[in-house]
Amino acid sequence: MPMSDATLNPSSRYFVREHHPENGTLLGFWIYLMSDCLIFAVLFATYAVLGRNYAGGPTGAELFDLKLVALNTSMLLLSSITYGFAMLEAGRKRLGATMGWLIVTGLFGAAFISLELYEFVHLLHENAGPQRSAFLTSFWSLVATHGLHVTFGIVWLITLLFQLKKHGLTHENMRRLTCLSMFWHFLDVVWIGVFTFVYLMGVLP
């Protein structure tokens, strides 16, 4: 009587599967956010040191339009709220509502980037590029780095929308939603620091 493959090779009776530690992705993402905190901490510290070195050029009080920046800030704050609504709907397993709130979040994020680009174009028109003074170098480095993060967040959000449409609210997609939520709220907190430390304090004499 012929022997089966399992008899010839006892190890074939055991299933081998990749071990993925529970909450390992979230832990790794927290570590990434901490490294991002260090990057922004360095940029804030650089601005604190160089923020008053105008080299005879324009100051923040001469350049900043607080009404425009306040409108831009409201766009990002609203996007954080709508992402919270998306997470609530995801918890209720409502795919359509989740995707709808994510789309609204992406639109608010796109509005934020558009207003920021408008501000950058205006600064360049006023000959206030990053090479003009140490103040502007530190300003552009901090604000542009944050804007680049928001842009990456929007790309990530669009990618996640396609994954949700194809696979639904699976365990993997819920984990991705959670990671993007952490990233998005982190950028919101950083921008509050930028708005207060750079723009509000920048218009003071």
UniProtKB/TrEMBL annotation:
Keywords: Cell membrane, Electron transport, Membrane, Oxidoreductase, Transmembrane, Transmembrane helix, Transport. It is found in: Cell membrane. Residues 1-203 form the Heme-copper oxidase subunit III family profile domain. Its main location: membrane. Coiled coil: none annotated. PROSITE patterns: COX3. The keyword Zinc-finger does not apply. One of its GO terms (molecular function) is cytochrome bo3 ubiquinol oxidase activity. The chain crosses the membrane at residues 27-49, 69-88, 100-118, 138-162, 183-204. One of its GO terms (biological process) is aerobic electron transport chain. One of its GO terms (cellular component) is plasma membrane. It is a multi-pass membrane protein. InterPro entries: Cyt_c/ubiquinol_Oxase_su3 (IPR024791), Cyt_c_oxidase-like_su3 (IPR000298), Cyt_c_oxidase_su3-like_sf (IPR035973), Cyt_c_oxidase_su3_a-hlx (IPR013833), Cyt_c_ubiqinol_oxidase_su3 (IPR014206), Ubiquinol_oxase_su3_dom (IPR033946). Belongs to the cytochrome c oxidase subunit 3 family. Heterooctamer of two A chains, two B chains, two C chains and two D chains. Cytochrome bo(3) ubiquinol terminal oxidase is the component of the aerobic respiratory chain of E.coli that predominates when cells are grown at high aeration. Has proton pump activity across the membrane in addition to electron transfer, pumping 2 protons/electron. This is Cytochrome bo(3) ubiquinol oxidase subunit 3. It comes from Pseudoduganella aquatica.
